[in-house]
Amino acid sequence: MNTGHRNLTALAVMLLLVNSLCGQVITLLHQGQSSFYYLPGTTLEDVVILYAQDNDTIILPGGAINLDQTGDLLVSKPLVFVGAGVYPSATGVTNKTQIIGNSVARLTVNAAGSGSQFHGIEFLQTSPDITNDNVSDLLFKHCEFSNVVSMASSVVSGMNNIQFMQCILRGGISGAGNSVQNVLIDHCIIDGSVSFSGLSNTVAVNHCLILGSSFSSSTTNNGVAFTNNIFTLTSAPTIAHLSACYYNNLFAIQGGGTVNAAANACYAGNGNQQTPLTPNNVFVNIPDFDDFPANYAGDYRLATNSIAIGMGQGGYDVGIYGGAAGTAWKDEAIPFNPHWQLLNVPTATGTTGVLAPVQIQAEAQQN
Question: What's the structural domain count of the chain?
């Protein structure tokens, strides 16, 4: 093992032990140097505003970070935020990382924060405010949003290059305003509708699982392209979007039914298909057709004889497990930092008067 790997491993082990013994610790990485800040004495706002510099990485601890106790958090420099993850089954050692906001105290990214990234964080109650006219180049990966994610711009070519990759969007996602450009929603679980009402959008929704979504003629979804997705529905939908396009999507409808696409909809002849939906004919197991379960249950891999196999553009499977190599949904949405699987810190000596060894088990992550 080279020195760099030894140092990284030692740092990671130390972080885990400090978090377990001393409470929540925020780690700031700057040009190979690490600094540690202990909650609640130092707040996340302090680290972001006072200590972090452009392009630094902030490693967040597991557990809740409640902005109601510290005030609005403004990200006005490009930073990388890395949490412990969002699935309870994958964060038993650390707990999942939650940033809790509300209408008064929330995480806001302005134009100066363009280029920021967020990994392995649950945004609870209130989603981040990214409605700045000129914010660009944001990445949310392996994150969870408990409420709708909204985007808006009042200027042409305002918001640009906003990416959501392998995220859970429990409230759906929406956009409004004059221009939301180059938004990518890729391999996400969307529990709600995709609704863009702006005048000029460029939005790609690829390889997603869209649960219980509704279609409304009042939502034009101008400039939105749905490709290689699976929609699960309790009744046959009416596609009245005049400006959205649908390519190689599967509409899985409980009880069967026929998609009613308007004559001027960008739908017919584009490789879309429909099928009746049962708990295990499309997926290995889908426990709820309308909602993504609060306990994260279900197996959304394709069933052996699923119609979704190979029906996508490029011959890919549709849904979150299809697509090019390296892009498929990562089980339990584990972020790229080391995944801690076991921590056993002895609290008493044994019969010999010596503490038993600390037991640590981790798994390296590549993406």
Answer: 1
